[in-house]
Write a structure and sequence with these properties.
Helices cover about 45% and strands about 20% of the residues. The protein has about 230 residues and is an alpha/beta fold. The strands form 2 sheets. Strands 3-2-1-4-7-6-8 form a 7-stranded mixed β-sheet, with helices on both faces. Helix 2 (about 45-50) links the parallel strand 2 and strand 3. Helix 1 packs parallel to helix 2 and helix 9 packs antiparallel against helix 10. The protein is globular.
């Protein structure tokens, strides 16, 4: 099965080339397609991406819109939605293909969460993220969600919302089959936690998810996220 990696960007010029290079290097020996979909960067993100990506697109700003635009342009059988501040594990493509090669292939999957910084706080975040995924059945977007392209378009793809787009997608996909956690860990950047405050960032995320399940709209939750 062919794999398309879709990376939504907004002012990620400092890191985008390294993100793509790392995704390709750790996929070895698999050949992958890398698609960058930019939401209107004011830096050199697109210029840097064009050197190393297979396709560089632009769309209206918004992660759900950008990722959906990337999915529309993808040629792979499997879609990997990779945040620009997340690094995939070694051998990730083989792990993904193995999951879909089984007789009970999932409709979607995601890697376990990890951070690019160590320490007790970040270890606890990874543990609680695992608990939350088991409770809700929904992986976080920075866990590199993988979806069968056929299943993705069968349910209409990501909803056009400003936040928690993975919850809307996974909710639709659950009726089609299993959502599994892959046996490897991504490393996502801790920059939001360091910038906004570790405890506040974690508490805010927990509150947002809780309010989502209480019926608060994604538009109102986006105001809290900002």
């Amino acid at each position: 099965m062919n794999i398309s990696v879709i990376i939504p960007t907004l002012n990620e010029g400092a890191a985008i080339a390294e993100v793509i290079a790392q995704a390709r290097m750790t996929a070895t020996p698999s050949v992958i397609e890398v698609i960058v979909c930019d939401g209107g960067s004011h830096d050199d993100t697109c210029a840097r991406a064009r050197v190393v990506a297979d396709k560089v697109l632009t769309s209206a700003v918004g992660r759900s819109r950008q990722m959906h635009a990337g999915a529309l342009a993808a040629t792979g059988d499997l879609l990997v939605f990779l945040h620009a501040d997340t690094r995939l594990p070694d051998g990730w493509a083989a792990i993904v293909k193995e999951a879909w090669a089984r007789s009970s292939a999932p409709v979607a999957a995601a890697f376990a969460l990890g951070f690019d910084q160590d320490g007790f706080f970040y270890r606890m975040i990874t543990v609680t993220a695992g608990w939350r995924q088991r409770l809700t059945g929904v992986p976080q977007g920075d866990q590199a969600i993988v979806v069968s392209k056929a299943a993705y378009f069968a349910v209409g793809g990501f909803p056009d919302v400003p936040l928690l787009e993975e919850y809307g997608l996974i909710r639709k996909l659950k009726g089609m089959g299993r959502i599994v956690r892959l046996p490897a860990r991504v490393l996502t950047s801790a920059r939001r936690y360091e910038k906004n405050g570790r405890l506040w960032n974690n508490l805010r995320s927990t509150i947002i998810v809780a309010l989502y399940y209480c019926g608060v709209s994604e538009e109102r939750l986006a105001c809290l996220y900002r």
